[in-house]
Structure prediction request, 239 residues.
Amino acid sequence: MTTIANNLQQVQARIAQACAAAGRDPDSVSLLAVSKTFGADAVLEAVAAGQRAFGENYIQEGVDKIAAVRAALPAAALQWHCIGPIQSNKTRLVAEHFDWAHTVDRLKIAERLSAQRPAHLPALQLCIQVNVDAGPTKAGVPPAEVLDLVCAVAKLPRLQVRGLMSIPDPAPSHEAQRAVHESARRLFEQIRQTGAPGLEKFDTLSMGMTADLDAAIQAGSTMVRVGTGIFGGRSRPTP
Ligand SMILES: *Cc1c(COP(=O)(O)O)cnc(C)c1O
Prediction:
């Protein structure tokens, strides 16, 4: 077995264990393989091991990789998620090439994605990034403003609002990680319970990475984004 296949198995086992500990169905948590900085060859290895959903941070790198992977495997039904910051001048690439975007935190970016999503593609699936631990320099909408943004984005055509995403700062303990993830979960439930129009598919809580996926699953994550645990350490930093 390749290292990537072996790592994927171990991450899946960790997810299953965290679900069992939390009394959750293992199928209620999906695994996004974060392939940023790794080449198309690494993605192909993961696909051969059964992985279908991939996350990219750098938009141009992601677009190039999507093309390379599609050329190698034209028939594979893969899902590509943009999980990096989206500047206005990059919205068109995201709208034209990705299936999901997790980092929307301004209405203007959502409006551009909506206008630029090609008519022949299904709606772009969106998560709103929330700055759940309120770091002053961090991306994400403040918790108090998230409902208004979700409702505004839900009205835009060619987009489907799927949920919330968060990237909390590293916390010193499992309990501290869990407490931050729990606050994201509460926000997510509050928004869901409004039953506001356009939230029919508001079912995704994108949180948890290699270091904290267990705590995130205990807190209710439905999608963990794992890079290092699958592909190994990265040699260059990412935004
Ligand atoms: C890099 C990255 C991940 C994966 O992080 P690992 O610690 O390598 O698992 C998840 N989410 C986002 C937004 C990232 O940028």
